Amino acid sequence: MTEYLKKLFANQHYDPNNFFLIAGPCVVESEKLIFEVAEKVSAICKNLQIPYIFKSSYRKANRTSASSFTGLGDETALQMIAKVGSHFQLPTITDIHAHEEAAIAAKYVDVLQIPAFLCRQTDLLIAAAQTGKIVNVKKGQFVNGESMKFAVEKIKKAGNEKIMLTDRGNTYGYNDLIVDYRNIPIMKSHQVPVIMDCTHSLQKPNQSGGVTGGDPQMIETIAKAAIAVGADGLFIETHPNPAVAKSDGANMLKLDLLEDLLNKLIKVRKAVS
Question: What is the pLDDT of residue 204?
Answer without folding.
Answer: 73
